[in-house]
Amino acid sequence: MTDPALVICQQCSGANRVPVARLGEQPVCGRCKARLFTGKPQDVNLATFDRHIQKGTIPVLVDFWASWCGPCKMMAPAFAAAASALEPEVRLLKVDTEAQKALSARYQIRSIPSLILFAGAQEKARTAGVMTQQGIIDWARANVN
Ligand code: ZN
Questions:
Q1: To bridge 118 with a disulfide, which of 1, 60, 70, 88 should be the other Cys (CB 3.0-4.6 Å)?
Q2: What contacts 101, CB < 8 A, 6 or more positions away?
Q3: Residue 131 CA, distance from chain mean position
Q4: pLDDT in tens, 32-87
Q5: Looking at 9, 12, 32, 72, which residue is catalytic?
C-alpha cells in the first residue's frame, strides 16, 4: 500500500490522504466529516466502485450478490460482520448484480455470491459460494499481500 493511503469516503466519494500508521485512528473525511471507516460494507454503483478501485489505495473486497439469491442473503450478515474486522486494512463493497449489470459483465460473474479481492487496482483473487465470517476474513488476509 502507498503511504499516505488514499481513502475514498463512503459518503461523498472524496479522496482523503491518510498516513498508513493512522488508518486505525478513526480518520474523518476532510470534505464531509464522515468517518472514513464505518465498519460496514458500502453498496456501490459503477461510479463509486471505480472510485474505490482505481483512485483509492486501500485493498477492496467486493461481494457480488443479488436479491433473488438465497445463499447471498445467507452470507450477507457474515460479510457485514467481516467489514468491522477487516477495516482499515481492507475496504468492503457490495455490488447488486441485477442493478449493476455493467460491473457483473466486466468481471464475468457467473455464479453468486462471488467475492473478488482487489489491490493496486488489480484483481488479486476471487472465490464463489457461501463463506462464514471467519472464512471471509481469513481468505481476504491470505490474499491481500
Ligand atoms: Zn466525505
A1: 60
A2: none
A3: 16
A4: 999 999 999 999 999 999 999 999 999 999 999 999 999 999 999 999 999 999 99
A5: 72
pLDDT digits (tens, 9 = 90+) for 98-136: 999 999 999 999 999 999 999 999 999 999 999 999 999
The answer to whether the beta carbons of residues 140 and 90 sit under 8 Å apart is yes
CA of 29 to the centre of ligand 1 (A): 5
Residues 10, 38 contacting (CB under 8 angstroms): yes
Q: How far is the CA of 143 from the centre of ligand 1 (A)?
A: 28
Q: Is 29 a catalytic residue?
A: no
Place of cell 499481500: 145
Q: Is residue 76 within 8 Å of residue 66, measured between CB atoms?
A: no
* Cis-peptide into 41, omega within 30 deg: no
Q: Note residues around ion ligand 1 (Cβ under 5 angstroms).
A: 9, 11-12, 14, 29, 31-32, 34
Torsion of CA 81, 83, 88, 90, to 10 degrees: 140
Radius of gyration of the chain (CA): 14
Question: Does residue 69 have an active-site annotation?
Answer: yes
pTM for this predicted structure: 0.97
